[in-house]
C-alpha cells in the first residue's frame, strides 16, 4: 500500500491522565502492521498520545531509521485540549534485510534493540524534536484551557449584567437562571490551572 493510516483509540483511554501508557500496546501493533503493509516509498499517518514512554520513544527512533522523513502534527480539527497528535512518516525505505516479522520488531522495541545506529545519534536528533513538540503541545493545551475558561467567564459576566439590568427594570424575575451558569472556578480547579 502507498498510504496507511492508523487512528486507534478506545473508551478506557479516552479521558485518562495516562493515555500514552494505556495506548502503547495498540500503537506498537499499529506500527508493526503498517510496516508489513507499506510499499517502498509509502506514507504512514498514525495517531499518538505522547512520546515520553520508553517503548513509544524507541518505536519512533526506529521509524526515523525506516522512513525518509518524520514529522509530528496537531491538525487544526483536533481538539486542542486533547493530547492526540499525529506522526507523518514519508518515504518508507522498505523492511530491513534482517526483518523477522512485526511481533519480533515489537519485542526488539521493548528491549531497546531495534536501532540501526548508536543511541546518542537519536537523542540529539529525533528525541530532541519529539521533546520540543511535546513542550509546544503542552503550551497549546494550556492556552486552549485558559481561552475556554476566559470565554466562559466573559459569557457569565455578560449574562449577569443582562440579568441585573432586567431585574432593575423589573421586567422578568431571574427564573433561577443563575443555577445553569457554568462554575468557571470548578473547571479551573479540575483542570489544575493554578498558574
Ligand atoms: C477514533 S476511532 C477511529 C475512527 C476512524 N478513523 C474512522 O474514521 O472511522 C478509534 C477506533 O479504534 C478502534 N480500536 C481500538 N482498539 C482496537 C484494537 N485493538 N484493534 C482494532 N481496532 C481498535 C476502536 O474500535 C475505534 O473504532
UniProtKB/TrEMBL annotation:
GO MF assignments: methyltransferase cap1 activity; nucleic acid binding
All residue ranges annotated as the Ribosomal RNA methyltransferase FtsJ domain in the record: 2-92
Family matches, as PANTHER family: CAP-SPECIFIC MRNA (NUCLEOSIDE-2'-O-)-METHYLTRANSFERASE 1, CAP-SPECIFIC MRNA (NUCLEOSIDE-2'-O-)-METHYLTRANSFERASE 1-RELATED
The protein's name: Cap-specific mRNA (nucleoside-2'-O-)-methyltransferase 1
Keyword annotations from UniProtKB, A to Z: Methyltransferase, mRNA capping, mRNA processing, Nucleus, S-adenosyl-L-methionine, Transferase
Localization per Swiss-Prot or TrEMBL: Nucleus
SUPFAM superfamilies xref list: S-adenosyl-L-methionine-dependent methyltransferases (SSF53335)
Species this chain originates from: Fragilariopsis cylindrus CCMP1102
Lineage: Eukaryota, Sar, Stramenopiles, Ochrophyta, Bacillariophyta
EC number(s) given by UniProt: 2.1.1.57
Catalyses which reaction(s): a 5'-end (N(7)-methyl 5'-triphosphoguanosine)-ribonucleoside in mRNA + S-adenosyl-L-methionine = a 5'-end (N(7)-methyl 5'-triphosphoguanosine)-(2'-O-methyl-ribonucleoside) in mRNA + S-adenosyl-L-homocysteine + H(+)
CC terms in the record's Gene Ontology section: cytoplasm; nucleus
Free-text function comment from the UniProt entry: S-adenosyl-L-methionine-dependent methyltransferase that mediates RNA cap1 2'-O-ribose methylation to the 5'-cap structure of RNAs. Methylates the ribose of the first nucleotide of a m(7)GpppG-capped mRNA to produce m(7)GpppNmp (cap1).
Keyword field contains Transmembrane: no
Keyword Methyltransferase: yes
Top-level taxon: Eukaryota
GO biological process: 7-methylguanosine mRNA capping; methylation; mRNA modification
Amino acid at each position: 500500500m502507498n498510504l496507511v493510516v492508523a487512528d486507534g483509540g478506545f473508551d478506557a483511554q479516552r479521558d485518562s491522565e495516562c493515555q500514552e501508557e494505556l495506548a502503547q500496546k495498540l500503537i506498537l501493533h499499529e506500527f508493526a502492521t503498517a510496516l508489513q503493509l507499506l510499499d517502498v516509498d509509502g506514507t504512514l499517518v498514525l495517531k499518538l498520545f505522547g512520546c515520553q514512554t520508553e517503548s513509544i520513544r524507541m518505536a519512533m527512533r526506529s521509524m526515523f531509521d525506516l522512513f525518509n522523513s518524520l514529522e509530528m502534527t496537531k491538525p487544526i480539527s483536533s481538539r486542542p485540549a486533547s493530547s492526540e497528535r499525529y506522526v507523518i512518516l514519508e518515504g518508507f525505505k522498505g523492511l530491513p534485510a534482517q526483518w523477522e516479522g512485526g511481533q519480533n520488531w515489537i519485542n526488539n522495541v521493548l528491549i531497546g534493540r531495534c536501532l540501526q545506529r548508536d543511541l546518542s545519534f537519536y537523542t540529539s536528533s529525533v528525541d530532541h524534536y519529539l521533546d520540543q513538540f511535546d513542550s509546544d503541545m503542552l503550551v497549546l493545551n494550556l492556552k486552549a484551557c485558559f481561552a475556554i475558561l476566559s470565554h466562559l467567564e466573559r459569557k457569565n459576566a455578560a449574562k449577569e449584567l443582562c440579568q441585573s439590568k432586567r431585574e432593575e427594570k423589573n421586567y422578568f424575575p431571574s427564573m433561577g437562571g443563575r443555577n445553569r451558569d457554568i462554575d468557571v472556578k470548578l473547571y479551573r480547579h479540575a483542570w489544575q490551572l493554578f498558574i
